[in-house]
């Protein structure tokens, strides 16, 4: 983590407390390239201000919903490639690099029907 990022974290008020910190860290892990932890200062700016009017042409997607949709897409693609198989060396869990139990939990949480990816 760079010194600028550390200063940014220390100077921010964290009105959302630990949940907001967790969301910022998760976003950084997903969106940063390479091995360097980076945080865009705009992630820590207030969502809206009474001094500025929101741009009606800009659509915002809540961070959690965006992450869930990306996760769903990745899992479905892996299941498609693995023809519905979750475990084993050619299973979706191996393709995603996560434990089988974790993948099964995410499939339940996201309501994915893994059987629709099974080969006939």
Task: Tag the structure with descriptive keywords.
120 residues; mainly alpha; 2 domains; 49% helix
Provide an overview of this structure.
The protein has 120 residues and is mainly alpha-helical. The protein has 2 domains: 42 residues, no CATH class; 55 residues, no CATH class. The protein contains 5 helices and no strands. About 6% of the residues have low confidence.
Largest sheet: none
Question: What's the overall average pLDDT, rounded?
Answer: 80
Low-pLDDT runs of 5+ residues are 47-53
Domain module count: 2
The strand count comes to 0
Helix content: 40-55%
Element-by-element helix/strand order? HHHHH
Percentage of β-strand residues: under 5%
Shape label: elongated
First-residue to last-residue Cα separation: 49 Å
Q: Give me the Rg, rounded.
A: 19 Å
Structural class: mainly alpha
Secondary structure elements and pairings:
Elements: H1 3-11, H2 17-31, H3 63-81, H4 92-96, H5 100-110
What's the short story on this structure?
This protein has helices spanning 3-11, 17-31, 63-81, 92-96, 100-110.
């Amino acid at each position: 983590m760079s010194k600028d990022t550390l200063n940014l974290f220390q100077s921010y008020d964290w009105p959302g407390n630990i949940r907001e910190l967790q969301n910022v860290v998760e976003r950084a892990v997903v969106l940063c390239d390479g091995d360097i932890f980076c945080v865009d200062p705009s992630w820590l700016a207030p969502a809206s201000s009474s001094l500025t009017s929101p741009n009606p042409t800009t659509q915002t997607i809540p961070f959690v919903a965006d992450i869930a949709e990306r996760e769903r897409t990745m899992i479905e693609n892996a299941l498609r490639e693995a023809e519905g198989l979750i475990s084993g060396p050619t299973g979706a869990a191996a393709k995603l690099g996560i434990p089988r139990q974790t993948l099964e939990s995410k499939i339940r949480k996201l309501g994915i029907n893994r059987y629709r990816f099974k080969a006939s």
